[in-house]
Amino acid sequence: MSGFTGNIQLVYVLAAACFVGGLHLMNSPATARRGNQVSTAGMVIAGVATLILMIHDGTVTATGWIVLISGALIGSAVGLYAAQSVQMTAMPQLVSMFNSVGGGAAALVAIYGYINAESNAGGVLGTTTVFTVLDVIIGSVTFSGSIIAAGKLQGLIGGQPIIFRGSRLLNAALAVVAIGAAAFMLSTASLPALLIVVLAALAFGVMMVLPIGGADMPVVISLLNAFTGTAVAMAGFVIGNWALIVAGALVGASGGILTKLMADAMNRSLVNIIVGGFGTGDSAVAVEAAADASIRSIAADDAAIQLAYASKVIIVPGYGLAAAQAQHGVAELAKTLEERGIEVSYAIHPVAGRMPGHMNVLLAEANVPYPQLKEMEEINPEFARADVALVIGANDVTNPAARRPGSEVSGMPILDVDQAKSIIVIKRSMGHGYAGIDNELYSDPKTSMYFADAKKAMAELTAAVKTLVG
Amino acid sequence: MSTALVTDLTIFILALLVGIEVIGKVPATLHTPLMSATNSIHGIVLAGALLIGVTANNLVGYILAFIAAFFAAANVVGGYVVTGRMLKMFRRRAVPASPGGHAEPGVPELDGLNGHKGLKGLLSKMDRSKP
Fold first, then answer.
1. pLDDT band at residue A285, thresholds of 50, 70 and 90?
2. pTM recorded for the entire structure
3. What is the ipTM metric for this complex?
């Protein structure tokens, strides 16, 4: 490593330190914005160092500059537009697309390096390492898998798990082909082998995500996030760049942690999710109420009375709330209740949404102050003191059956909604949740069911509370 | 095993451990912005795309370099902008609806000075240098 390149590496280390510092500041909502700025500063430093390195290198052709600069500018414009126009409900799709292009770019770094080395005399042997093939495989799987995930989230591809006969066999075959061709690449310089690896990995990415149900998306996005990070780190190994290695490792760690958190919160093992098979789509199949008619149904006015005369209300939002675009409505209702001096907080289950922390962002957008957003461990002891627990579009995460062995949700961490003095559940129908079982909470004598679309229900409840207390 | 490879592997493993340590402390409330922030961080692959592009001298090379630069730039710019957009919405208190649409959140309120030790304290103090 010459002196100059060494100095540039040090600048890259500085950039990497900014990334770590920026992530560290994200441990509190109060400092998180500063964290993003610190991280951005690191990125600018890395960008400038890269430009200096390119100019110093002096081999870039005029066409090369035009190609790179126009690519970067057009990409920036597209990224900027997407980031500014995206709806908060569509955030999981956008994150998925960023995973996709990040993984794609990382794969291209290795693909390009391989082709370039082969087209120059001397072949690729000696420059192709296990990192090259790992980068190509992981990057390609991430690229295609994330596009499918985004398509499912956007509703372009059905949320139902897509499984056909022999699909698992096909997956295994694709994996074998990709790894076999990759092993061949390592020993012999071969462009066809590279092409086979890329195609097999792309197909594998598609096949990996297709069988996964819409409700498992928080895990999938986290996993693909970890993949992207790993691919970028591998790209760092390929070109010997520390900034890429550190950044990739950070993202890999983050994605890994989130994947584990999400899988635990859904009571599923990662293998179980990837192998797929029983996750359902967004729209739970409408199943008629079980024969025991111990369900108590109430109207908006009754629910409003309970809420208006409570002193502590805990709102339990689920994905149904976001699907009905009711987050502003619930914030409005909460505001009305707070004006009456009622203590309102939100119980957020880790998988309430389509990606980790999604519900928090949706409520933050609806102007709900973040101290009111309580994590599961924090809010669970408070349910016993709550007069009313208002469950909106959440199902399995409130099912007390999870505490006993022997059901689909057994062992799943749940919100202790049944501990509240009374419970109001807002739901469109008696349809089952994603686990496909009856929710014992609904037949609890303390529970009243208010059947309505979440958005409409919020408007009616707010109006009813206002009339009631005038 | 070459020295360079050993160095690279060391950096990778240490960065992984630092990542696990730092990210384990991020509250669930911020998990979506966290994922979006790490998304923008892996946009550093733009540096990789530019650095391999320096050797491009034929059509295939130019096309691959263009796509890589395009992908990575979209990733890095979009990631930072959308993370900033999300974090701006996290407020300690509800902001009364202002007539001008988006209220300027101003300096984020800090959770008091307690607990602001170490790097976070250092960085947040820099932020509070002005009274």
1. very low
2. 0.85
3. 0.87
Asked if pLDDT for residue A217 goes beyond 90, the answer is no
Which residues from A are below 8 Å from B10, CB to CB? none
Q: Is the pLDDT higher at A36 or at A264? A: A36
Contacts 24+ apart (CB under 8 A), B52-55: B52/A109, B52/A112, B52/A113, B52/A116, B52/A239, B53/A54, B53/A60, B53/A64, B53/A67, B53/A68, B54/A54, B54/A57, B54/A59, B54/A60, B54/A64, B55/A59, B55/A116
CA–CA separation, A213 and A218 (whole Å): 11
- Token representation of residue A102: 């990040």
- CATH code, residues A300-469: 3.40.50.1220
The angle, 0 to 180 degrees and rounded to 10, between the axes of the packed helices B45-53 and A91-119 is 30
Q: CB-CB: which of A16, A50, A63 is closest to B51?
A: A50
Percent of chain A exceeding pLDDT 70 equals 91
Cα–Cα dist A59/A43, whole Å: 24
d(CA B100, nearest CA chain A) in Å? 15
Which of the residues A216, A396, A416, A438 is marked catalytic? A396
More confident residue, A6 or A47: A47
Contacts of A91 in chain B (CB under 8 A): 32, 36, 82, 86
Interface residue of A23, A38, A136 to substitute, partner B, most B CBs within 10 Å: A23
Q: With bands split at pLDDT 50, 70 and 90, how would you rate the model's confidence at A119? A: low
Instruction: Compute the C-alpha angle A40/A42/A43, nearest 5°.
Output: 65
Does the annotation count A396 as an active-site position?
yes
Read off the pLDDT of residues B69-128 as tens digits, 9 standing for 90 and up: 999 999 999 999 999 999 999 988 876 654 444 444 444 444 433 444 444 444 444 444
Domain boundaries along the sequence of chain A: 1-85, 88-282, 300-469
A30: Cα separation from own chain's centroid:
22
Closest chain B C-alpha to A338 CA, distance in angstroms: 12
Window 73-102 of B: residues touching A by CB (8 A cutoff) are: 73-95, 97
